[in-house]
Amino acid sequence: MPITNSLILSLLTALVLVGGGFLVAGALRHIPGRIQSGVEIIIEAILEVMTQVLGVRELAKKFFPLIATIFLFILLNNWIGVLPGIGSLGFAQAHDGKEEFIPLFRSANSDLNSTLALALIAMVAIQLYGIGKLGFFRHWSKFFAFTKGPVYFFVGILELIGEFAKVVSFSFRLFGNIFAGEVLLVIVSALLPFFASFGLLPFLFLEFFVGFIQALVFAMLTLIFLKVATSEIQH
Question: 3-state secondary structure string, 63-123?
Fold first, then answer.
C-alpha cells in the first residue's frame, strides 16, 4: 500500500487523538485538573448536542463513540491541514516532460480517498446499528419490501439507492470544501506575495471555521441517519 502525503497526516491525526486519549485516561482524578475539566466540558457539550438531536440521553451515549470519533478526527485533520508548511513544503518532480511540485504533507480531507473511506465507515456503521436495533430482516425490509405491494417495493428501491447516494454526498461534500479552501489559500498567497503573511490571516481564520463546520455537518448527518436507521418502520 503506497504511503501518500495525505495518509501521513491521517496517521498523525490518529496518533494525536489516541495518544491524547491515553494521556487523559491515565490522568483521571476524583478532583479534576484543568486538562480533565476541559475534556469533560468537550464530552458533555457533544453529548448535549446529540441528546437534543436524538431526544434520548441513553441513545446519545450509545452513539457517542462513533460520532465523537468522526467529529474529532475530521476536525483535527482539517485544522492540521491549515497549519503553515502543510502543502507548501515539498520537492519538484518531472512528470510527462513538465516539472510538478509535490508537497510532503497534504490535508487528509483534501484527498477524495480519505473522505470516501470516512463515508463508507459511517454508512457501514449506520447499517450495523440498524441491524442491531431492529434485527437483520426487519432492517433490510425497509429496502426490499417484496410482499407489501408495488408502492412499497419501489419506495424501498429508492431508499436503497439513497443509501449509496449518501456515500457520494458525504465524501464529495467534505472533499470539495476542504480542497476549495486549499486552492483559495494558494491563490491568495500568489496574489499577495509581499503581504501574504497579513493578507492570509482572515482566510486562515475562515478555513479554521470552515473546518469546524464541515466536521460538525458530517457528524450531525451521520447521527441523523443513525436515528432514522434505528427507528421502527411506520406504516
Answer: HHHHHHHHHHHHHHHHHHCCCCCCCCCEEEEEECCEEEEEECCCCHHHCHHHHHHHHHHHH
C-alpha cell at 118: 470516512
| Dist. CA 185–CA 83, nearest whole Å | 11
Q: What share of the chain is helix, strand, coil (3-state, %, to 5)?
A: 75, 5, 20
Q: Give pLDDT, residue 235.
A: 47
Contact (Cβ atoms closer than 8 angstroms) between residue 130 and residue 229:
yes
Residue linked to cell 436524538: 54
What is this structure's pTM?
A: 0.82
Number of H helices, E strands in the chain: 8, 2
DSSP state letter for 31:
S
- Are 174 and 74 in contact by the 8 Å Cβ rule? The answer is yes
Rg over alpha carbons for the chain, rounded to the nearest Å, is 21
Per-residue model confidence (pLDDT) at position 180: 81
Q: For the chain, what are the domain ranges?
A: 5-85+105-229
